[in-house]
Write a structure and sequence with these properties.
The complex is a heterodimer of chains A (298) and B (205). Chain A has 298 residues and is an all-alpha fold. Chain A has 9 helices and no strands. In chain A, helix 1 packs antiparallel against helix 2, helix 2 packs antiparallel against helix 3 and helix 8 runs antiparallel to helix 9. Chain B is globular and about 65 Å long. Classes of the chains: A mainly alpha (298), B alpha+beta (205).
């Protein structure tokens, strides 16, 4: 199970990058200010966002090489786009990175054409969603009932939403970025974490706690530590608690029409703590996910 | 010309001696821990009360299983680099020179036919002894079986000769991959599901 750490890292980082892209890009497409009205700091934070998204996607791709035993042959990984969701997953990751890079290039070059920027951002978001979709399809194999259930898409989507909104809000808070649109990210982050707790508890409370193995199977029985589910719920609960503290203190409120957050170190650290806790929860959940399907001979 | 080779397995005749497993390892020089053909010992049941008497209700039999060279090879469909392909005679084989070692096919195959080989850092699996087949020979497992519980040939011919059964407990739903496999079931296999029979030798397979 622990051998799957490159895939745990790849899926969580990839989903986080898509989450940030969606949390930042979609509201900007719908209600964002035009680039022609941006100041230097607006352009700066926009580029910082795109750089972080690109960096996370590149890091995810780089770490995924550690699960390949012949990484130099990976150049042919797009060879089977016709039937392999693994090929398609990598294709959509690369197109997402390309659109993010193009968007950054346009902003860097000072191109302010509103429809062009929003079209490129829209393409980046659509490509990111396809990346997420192909990731889900990759694991929802008809021959693997344990991953074929609805738990997989919901779990991946909730990771995307909770990590995406949390880190988007953290970046905004850390950089004290200017307000590009008016919506409270922490409300959505808290809701996503709450949904994730509720989903694990209500939709599938026994996920990982029972031996889910159809009678007719030649797959070896799994021996995943049951504590991972408890760990996931505990970390999510603690993360949610920190988010609620932040909101209770009113630290997430916009202090003016122009600035979204006040650049104070206290809230940043509290917020960072929430991110670390939710990230730990996602890692525990993902190790549990991979542990449910042991490889024969391992 | 054969368009789809397949295996026949007679569960009623198999004694579980594992000669097929050993012959396969010997022919293909497989290192310890890698089994292209495996013999699963299936066991279940216990005691049940009939009237005033307790009688044994044990079910026990063996299943010898390798790659089934499926008509719908999900391993090949899932491989991102097309390292797994199907020959004109239906044999599915791994090109270890192209495999990137991502091991996704291991998850895709419901028969767990693909095994990771640390010597080559690629997956490997039964290749139907195609070198021997091409030279007019016989797969090692078939040739070695003292009970003649294994046979091979054109799938259509095997079905004519032995019937259409291709699933007994604990084999997965054959509609997922359309395995090129024909089975003569052991008499206990009909009651295996209701008596919660399971593989009893996981540490060996």
């Amino acid at each position: 199970m622990l051998k799957e750490w490159p895939l745990v890292a790849f899926t969580i980082l990839g989903q986080t990058a898509v989450g940030i892209l969606l949390a930042m890009g979609l509201p900007w497409i719908v209600m964002g200010t035009s680039a022609s009205t941006w100041t230097g700091s607006t352009t700066g934070i926009f580029l910082a966002f795109l750089g972080i998204i690109f960096g996370l996607l590149a890091l995810a791709a780089g770490l995924s090489f550690f699960h390949l035993h012949h990484p130099f042959r990976a150049l042919r990984v797009l060879a089977n786009l016709g039937t392999s969701w693994l090929s398609r997953e990598i294709l959509f990751e690369l197109t997402t990175m390309a659109f993010v890079l193009l968007m950054a290039g346009l902003i860097w070059a000072g191109i302010e054409t509103r429809w062009l920027l929003k079209t490129v951002m829209g393409m980046a978001c659509a490509s990111g969603l396809m990346f997420l979709f192909s990731m889900v399809r990759l694991y929802r194999l008809p021959t693997l009932p344990v991953w074929g259930r609805l738990f997989t898409p919901f779990s991946f989507a909730l990771t995307t939403l909770s990590m995406g909104t949390l880190i988007t809000a953290l970046i905004w808070r850390a950089f004290a970025g200017p307000r590009l649109f008016a919506y409270e990210l922490l409300d959505y982050a808290s809701l996503a974490v709450l949904f994730e707790i509720g989903f694990v508890l209500i939709r599938d409370p026994l996920h990982g706690l029972r031996i889910f193995r159809p009678v007719r199977s030649l797959r070896p029985p799994e021996r995943v530590p049951r504590g991972l589910l408890i760990g996931r719920l505990t970390f999510l609960g603690l993360g949610l608690f920190l988010l609620l503290v932040l909101q209770k203190l009113g630290l997430d409120a916009a202090i003016s029409d122009q600035w979204l957050f006040e650049p104070e170190p206290g809230p940043v650290l509290l917020h960072l703590g929430a991110v670390v806790l939710v990230l730990a929860a996602e890692a525990a959940g993902r190790f549990l996910f991979y542990g449910l399907v042991p490889r024969p001979g391992d | 010309m054969v368009t789809q080779y397949g295996f026949f397995f007679n569960a009623a005749a198999c004694s579980g001696c594992k000669a097929c497993q050993v012959a396969c390892k010997d022919r293909n020089d497989l290192q310890p821990g890698i089994l292209w053909r495996r013999v699963y010992e299936v066991a279940g049941g216990g005691w049940e009360k009939k009237g005033q008497v307790w009688v044994p209700s044990v079910v026990a039999y063996n299943v010898s299983m390798a790659c089934n060279h499926c008509e719908k090879p999900v391993c090949a469909y899932s491989c991102p680099v097309k390292a797994i392909s199907k020959r004109d005679d239906g044999i599915v084989f791994v090109d270890t020179g192209a495999c990137i070692g991502c091991r996704y096919c291991e998850w895709a195959c419901p028969y767990t036919a693909l095994r990771f080989d640390v010597r080559t850092n690629t997956v490997s699996k039964c290749d139907f002894c195609f070198a021997a087949i091409d030279a007019g020979g016989t797969p090692a497992c078939v040739a070695s079986c003292p009970q003649r519980a294994l046979d091979f040939g054109d799938l259509a011919e095997l079905r004519k000769k032995y019937g259409e059964v291709r699933q007994i407990v604990p084999l997965p739903d054959p509609s997922q991959t359309e395995p090129a496999l024909v089975i003569k079931p052991h008499r206990d296999s009909a009651k295996a599901a209701e008596r919660a029979a399971e593989v009893a030798n996981w540490e060996e397979v």
